[in-house]
User: Fold these one by one.
Assistant:
Number 1:
Amino acid sequence: MNSRDRFLAALRRQPHGRAPVWIMRQAGRYLPEYRALKAKSDFVTMVRTPDLAVEVTLQPLRRFPQLDAAILFSDILVIPEALGVGYRFRDEGGIAMERALRSAADVDGLAVAGAADRLRYVYAALAQLRRELGHDKALLGFAGSPWTLACYLVEGGGSEDFPKTKALVKSDPKMMHRILGILAEAVAEYLTRQFAAGADAIQIFDSWAGALQGPDYEEFSLRYIRAVLERLPAGAPVILYAKGKSPQAAALAATGVPCLGVDWTMPLSHVRRLAGRPICLQGNLDPEFMVGDPGAAHAAAMEVLADNADDPGHIFNLGHGITPQARIESFQAVLDAVVASGV
Ligand code: CP3
């Protein structure tokens, strides 16, 4: 069975040889070939130039031929940019947006019409990748959830805990709903076009899900994730990653997505019980293991595989993105563990 078939079988919980594997931010700073390209062009240029985005996407697959899927090199912040709010990386680390959304006038100023059209460079990169990968490897697209994108837009950049965004939820929920509605439309159109360009599956990153508690998570995030999903074909191959929300796996599974991306804070077996219906799970090795000793990384990957207990609905991944400090030997040790396993 080739990688792409294995990936799609796992997503549908159909039997296949072993868990497919890919690693988020696989094109990240831990690879010397990525750092070499990055020395010549800045990040945003690389994202906006299909030839460069394709090259960076393929780098990890060349080095690690056992990877089953390629994830497009891009960023979730291309949606805010297409709406007229650009982004850049601060020299001291972290993300700065060109401006923050604070008033109704700021929201009125968003360039809503044609936003998904301005992301043609993404569809061009996906189409080129589909041609280069053929039908052997799975190709993944992605987008931020409306809530996670709103966090960057309202805060005006990255943050530990998004205090201004949380304050707006309380002080002006109507304005927050307006922003989220605009983002849900843009994300739905964007994902539809990623599928049309050749993506086999897409992941929705609700990376800042943990900033919302209790009923607020339903009202300001899940509701808009559902709005996005309703605009996609029923049963579309979507992986929903809501960091910090494994205890709410039942609510996440109730969105109808075929797969949940799981962070490393709860064993897969526990998340599976909480989900309340048969579902594919993606995850969930602690990214810290990629920084340490390869033997420990191998053992930890074996534990994740054992905890999955041979359920065919498992895509092996880290519980979050790989860090710049990751060791190539540890990455390889994890791949070796997965490839040697059988489901
Ligand atoms: O594997 C891949 O390369 C896939 C492409 C990908 C990137 N970002 C490339 C990237 C994906 C899927 C993302 C998603 C993304 N971007 C998310 C959601 C996933 C998550 O991490 O929770 C978020 C929140 C972002 C926003 C973002 N972009 C952050 C927080 C950072 C780190 C900024 C910093 O100062 O460390 C980025 C940068 C980024 N995105 C890099 C890559 C390869 C590193 C850029 C570099 O410094 O070379």
Note: DSSP finds 15 helices and nine strands in the chain.
Number 2:
Amino acid sequence: FPNQKNQCFMKELTTLEEYIIRAQNKFPGATGELSQLLRDIGLAAKIISREVNKAGITNILGYEKSENVHGESQKKLDLFANEQLISALSRSNITCMVISEENEGIVRLSGESGKYIVYMDPLDGSSNIDVSVSIGSIFSIYMRPDGDKALTEEDALQTGEKQVAAGYVLYGSSTVMGYTTGLGVRLFTLDPSIGEFILSSEDVKIPEYGNIYSADEGSYNFWELGLKKYVKHCQVIDPKTDRPFKARYIGCMAADVHRTLLQGGIFMYPDSSKYPNGKLRLMYECNPLSFIIEQAGGLATDGKKRIMEIKPSSLHECTPIYIGSRKNVEKLKEFISESDETPAG
Ligand code: AHM
Ligand code: MG
């Protein structure tokens, strides 16, 4: 940076590492372990981002032979992302177990001495890989309930309210990492030229109302009546309420929720006659992104209940989800509660 102007600019940059250390220093009793964990995830995200960007020009594309726990074909990049995140979390003895979309059971780490439990979807929206459309990683962090006793699956089945941190990485036109530790939402953008995540927003707030709805509308005929009516409501011409809304659906929850966070509106993956419990996973898709959206001032519900209050009964369970701007989600809930019809076939 030869000129003065650029030197000033450098002074204003805050990297993810610096930010996390500064935030930790505000809490004198903090051990630094959660900070280290977030930095480890940031490191894995940079490696995954590099590989995602190369995906079109290397042979990493294509289906791996194995299937994941949901019977879906796993692609090589899914496996790569899973390995990178698990390897990053193994670096420091902070994480005792990982629950991943790509592993059926719990993955025990560091001789089980760590105090955090991490859930993750290492590569969300993987059907987008082959067409170079946005994909993401999602993570959710809990405290291990009792440091001394032997770990069981039960220890991992905590409600979303107990999350101590959560976040996502979006591999889009730029790579963005967002996280919360319950004190607001921070966003960082990866500058690939220096290999650092740079702070882009320290306290993101979601608009309280937005004119975008996001759902797989091709499944309309599988939906229940209340949801059908709500979507028709979004399409009514009424300039006073900014309708008709725009429809946007990327097919990657991390990307759709990131857009919703910044521009407002609502993202929906409902229950239906095709997916009676919805398709998205409570523990590593819905809870972490609900924590982010709530911290930004929005809402996340399964139609009746707050997502983060759902008591999980299994590691990979699904839930319907409606998430986004407060006023949009409240309106959706009105439509759902007015209709007690069962899903149409
Ligand atoms: P994945 O994590 O296995 O890639 O799938 C989850 C994704 C969500 O990110 C996205 O919202 C949804 O599945 C898309 O599903 P559909 O193809 O039914 O619209
Ligand atoms: Mg996913």
Note: The CA atoms of residues 167 and 179 lie 4 Å apart.
